[in-house]
Amino acid sequence: xxxxxQSPRYKIIEKRQSVAFWCNPISGHATLYWYQQILGxxxxxxxxxxxxxxxxxxxxxxxxxxxxxxxxVDSTLKIQPAKLEDSAVYLCxxxxxxDNWSSPLHFxxxxxxxxx
Amino acid sequence: xxxxxQPEDQVNVAExxxxxxxxxxSVSGNPYLFWYVQYPNRGLQFLLKYITGDNLVKGSYGxxxxxxxSQTSFHLKKPSALVSDSALYxxxxxxxxxxxxxxxxxxxxxxxxxx
Lengths: 116, 115
Description:
Chain A is mainly β. Chain A is built from no helices and eleven strands. The chains are: A mainly beta, B mainly beta.
């Protein structure tokens, strides 16, 4: 099966600019996650979708970050305006079913964002 | 709140020797536990998980992990390390008793296997 696809792989922007990341999960996976991985740290969950609904966005900085999954498949994560501390790798992951919490997550290769 | 601790930033081992990467966790209920590996410029790859049953679980690439409820640990092990095992390893926990709970990752341990 095809894996989780993310684009772009790299992005460099200046602070206060906006940026968007795209994710296409594994076909048939209902649950989609966006994680932020700062260099030297473990991934931190930003938002979790079940189909096109938000399950958990408690750690999403909503004043500048937004995410959507309009048709329950692809998702976009946006940052507007970006700050220096947003420099990180943004990982998208998907899993087969929210009701089966034992399902492992399948990760994309991530988008490395550098804010200057 | 649930948490994961990986006390070693880096583990060094010689090729052919056994390796252990340590993980301890804290949850209010019962845990689902996972290990993931991350190679440079790649996303995380699933290695193995503990859900229930045998405390020793086997996963990909010859890795195994032992669940110890009394010590709240889930250490990753391999009997004979390969240079190609060098990567970043993450332990993660999910509290199965909390509806809508998130998967929480540890800070990661870099494994260096030297020839």
